[in-house]
# Entry
Amino acid sequence: MIEFRNVKRVYGRGEATAIALKGVDMKIEQGEFAAIMGHSGSGKSTSMNIIGCLDSPTGGEYLFGGVSIGGLSRDTKALLRREYLGFIFQGFNLLGRTTARENVELPLIYRGMKAKDRHKLALEALDQVGLLSFESHTPAELSGGQQQRVAIARAIVTKPLVLLADEPTGNLDSARSVEVMELLRSFNRDRGITIVMVTHEEDMASYAQRTIRFRDGEIESHR
# Structure
């Protein structure tokens, strides 16, 4: 599903040059749940951004589903993100003045879907994360764990092939973190969604089938 072939990423020039990735080879199979770990500056976030087509390598090749992404136009990459990827962020990234249902509908608006169909799919997604009865609540009326579950519903409403989760439990307490991780594991196990998760927490990484550890722009280990 996801493959890096000698992927490099360099920022800046001259004395300001920073090497984020030093030639990374990595594969994540379809249906896998992989955790990416590493200290700040290790390259894990850069790798996630490249996987999500939010950044591009300066060397090497990134393939998604066997297709090389490097030669694709900006519009085609945006289409790939819209059709095949779901994103979950540490900060939830919900719109504060809109309801849970309306937040979940956002990706469907970008697809040009009719309101009636958007409404139906958003309610189904909220039901899948256990928040159907909270459809009319705004983020301010929800706990942190509930807000993250709304964000997960928004990520899965388009039925993506891959979920990219960037520190999804970073703003949650231990009990809510476990709830979110159990939810992610169920989507991977029951629906076959490939999940790639960046985390700095060992206990959260234990939910994944494999942990890929980065250090100084290279993969230190994976098991």
About this structure: Helices lie at 44-51, 74-84, 100-110, 115-128, 144-156, 174-191, 202-205.
